[in-house]
Amino acid sequence: MKAMPMKWPHSPAAKPLWRSGLAAVLLALAGSAALASGAEAEGRTQAQWQTLYQQAQQHYQSQDHAAAEQAAREALRVAEAGQGNVQPYIASSLNILALVRQQQGEPEEAVALLRRALEISETALGEHLNTASLALNLGNALDGLQQPQQALPAYARALQITDALADASDPHTAQVQQEALASLGRVHAALGQSEQAAAYHQRLLEGTTALPQARHAETLLRQGLELQQQGQLAQARPLLEQAVQLYQAQAEPGQTPHGSRINALSALAALYQQQNEYALAEPLHRQAVELRRAANPQDPALAGHLNELALWHWQRKEYEQARPLLEQALELARQHQGDVSLPVAHMTSNLAQLEGVQGHENPSKTLHQQALALFEQLPREQPVLLGQAQTLNFLAGFDYRKRRFGEAEAQFLQALNLLEQAVGTDDERLLPVLENLETLKISQGRSSEAAQYRRRVERIKEAQKP
């Protein structure tokens, strides 16, 4: 009997800690622009605007979006009613309002506000850090609307301005520059423009002495995570590796580990596993476990790392070392995800397979039945259908070995149906079940039916050839 490929619930790449969509670049005031005629009136009006603008920023950062919108709109009203060189104030007000509207689920309005703000800033300030920040925000807003081609010119403008600014040692300028490089590299990679992406990634890796190491590591981590989630593993790898190096260099003995450092370790470990480099992933998982336990012994992310360490021991046939790690992972998953959840179902299935490879048939079958019951209670999404099919394939194998061919066939067919629902009729993940059905038919002397499955197997394998 063919076992379906063991699909471990790998620790997903750590999700970015940053919000998708707009980068929260809040603009600095440009010069001493007057908001009203007359020194006394100017002072009062400028103070009023600054108070409103700061309130909008504070409410935005505390995620009180209704209050932030109110303050931002009032700041915009005050700026527009002023006299003199009010354009930078209007642009700043439009920027914070756009950030708020983005978070309120109005991305199209945010884009319109940012376009207006950028146009104003280009006219009033030209190649200024505020203009670069607005261009970056506009690019992120368009990117969030799945409009990467339209986002590219905005990102390019942000980079052009920061490259041209005389004060390249300013950390704020360096940060906008790094964000623009990261965004350009990511978008070009997603568009399949690998040469352009590589050039931006190389500049990003080189970094800048103006940017603090922690900030540079943060930018590299975010970019690496985004590329990893896009499946751009070759491009993500050097970024994540350098992020880990920077975080490790900053770590001090006895210091509480920074969350970003742990996330970088987790992401790089997951990437190595995606590239089947388990020997590189294993020490990173161990370090992540140590750091997470030091910070929070009940951290739910520990389950994924423990699961992956168990896989590493399993591949080395170190089953006794794998078992306690899997059991710890399962217990943590139950605590944090509930008894009926996809991680618990997967880890129960993993324990069942571990019992099976050691020849413990009855415990293995019992655990597979428990896993199947869990999968059947979950929403019928692709990972659930795949897990359910895998479990049915194993259970059918038990019946086949007992020569209960009728029961085995019913379960194999059910597994095949679930796989076809999940991945279609020509995916390579169907092969183990199709080959098992072929073997079953041959065992029953039903050669013509076996040949039908053999033809499907050959067709799928042929399609997989490069």
UniProtKB/TrEMBL annotation:
UniProt entry tagged with the keyword Repeat: yes
Keyword Signal listed: yes
SUPFAM superfamilies: TPR-like
N-terminal signal peptide: 1-36
InterPro entries given in the database record: TPR-like_helical_dom_sf, TPR_rpt
Pfam families: TPR_10, TPR_12, TPR_7
Keywords attached to this entry: Repeat, Signal, TPR repeat
Name of the molecule in the record: Tetratricopeptide repeat-containing protein
Natural source organism: Lampropedia hyalina DSM 16112
